[in-house]
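Follow-up to my post from last week.
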Amino acid sequence: MTPAVNQREKRLLILIPAFNEESAVGGVVGEVRSAVPGTPVLVVDDCSADATRSEARNAGAQVLALPHHLGLGGCVQAGYRLAYELGYDYVIRVDGDGQHDPRDIPTVLKALEHGNCEMVIGSRFVDGNGEHTSWLRAAGIVFFRAVLRPILGRPVRDPTSGFVGVNRTALELFSATFPLEYPEIEALVVLQRKRFRFVEVPCRFRPRRAGRSTITAVKSLYYIIHVLLGVFVNVLKFEGRRK
Amino acid sequence: MNHLFDVVTVFGVVMIVWVLSSVRREHIRVEYSVSWLLAGAVLLVLARWRTLDDWIAAGLGVSDSFIALAMVAGAAFLVVLYRLSLRISGLKDSSITLAQQLAILEFRLEALNEKVQTPAAR
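User reply:
Got it. Predicted complex:
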């Protein structure tokens, strides 16, 4: 598939970060192509040791292959940078493990187009669809909701969701500045620094199709400390209210 | 107590010799060796110049000159480690940007190649 796209196709890009997701990524790409036919799909392969790259290509995606492992934030940012350089107006990120239902992509896109916001979060808790969330993650979500509430000045129901859509304004920002590890929560504070707006829309979440979450019980304490520090540093960088 | 100062002296000498040897074998770049050599020199000076330790101990308000030595040496090593953390952070940022740019360039090169090789795309 030719990566260069014409002006009409440039409007929306589906971004799938993937690391060792050979058993799931092909299905995810297929589902995305069924949900939004004709929309380019870009898999950013974070230097997987398995056949993620070829599975994605065989399923019809374009692949941005990183030369070494950067972690989720660096991987997503690489996709944002390419999308920005290629002139896309909207980018919607769908995880490569199959947890996000691509049938919700049109909902996210519609909110991006008409929601008067720079970022849309596909939330498992708006309309109460959070049944596939582990207790550990649920506890983390409750904790970070409380941390973010005073910083953002409004509630956020699903701050750890990776089902995220951004418009070109946010794309420009994230191309230059994006948290490198566990980016979802810090990205909200980065947006807040610029006084950008976000909305949450209800989306279906499913159990991951294969592999294991990168955030295990052992790593959860490190995760909390790391994200809290990242949030704190971003609060210190606050650049004032948007004109 | 004198024995402890001798141990620190030996440690300082070994450290300086080890770092110089690593620089000679190009395992450490010269600019990164300077901090460690300075830290080793500080250790040596403090271990051999007891009067200086006594002055520092008096200044810090501690009774034992070896504790003063340990505090100064600890501070010196913290400075070295902090400087290295700065270097590593800068290098990691550069490495991530380079990796992303390389991937993007390869992606665009592949697209150009496909365009050239596919007559329909001309």
